[in-house]
Amino acid sequence: GALAEPRRLMRAGLGLIVLGHGSLVLGAIVHGSVLRHVAGASRAVTPEYAVANVVSVGAGLLSIAVGIVAILVSHNLSRAALHWTLLSMSLLNCLLSTTCSVGLALAIALTIHSRGMHLVTGCNSSALPADARAAIATNDCPFNTTRIYDTALALWFPSMVLVAAEAVLSGRCCLVALIFRGIGPCARGYGKEQV
After folding, report:
1. Is 130 inside a domain boundary?
2. CA angle 56–151–170, rounded 5-degree value
3. Membrane-spanning regions, if any (predicted)?
């Protein structure tokens, strides 16, 4: 019953809006400072680019939408259409955010394992070292490879934490929608409490 309190649902909605904006900002910073160099002149998209930018931004946008719906539901508890909207959107966002969190963890692991070489594929320099953190002797590379690795990891870690928190709050909103619709064992206890 405490999970379905309107004030707690409103706080979860506000949290999702803040986390969604954080994911959008981090996705924009990753794209602007790191991943635009990864695409290079040939515009070849690496797995890290797709995972970190596209899915993270999509999860951020959906989190903002779920947050808005959760706030609407907290003020209109009797509207069944809003309950179903919250249920479907929060379930989708929970799945997308969980997938994004796993994808970001995979991108971080691949980047660390390859010593950042996936991140500097846009550089066709013959003097490219085996480690992306090492400086390149020549100036053939259009970007500074020593900063790409550290910047990407420094931005991917907080992004992964944000999308994991989005998944938790979306799961909570999904449970609240199930309770409001009378589905599941928690809904019976909530109904008795309301009576």
Report:
1. no
2. 25
3. 12-30, 50-74, 86-112, 155-180
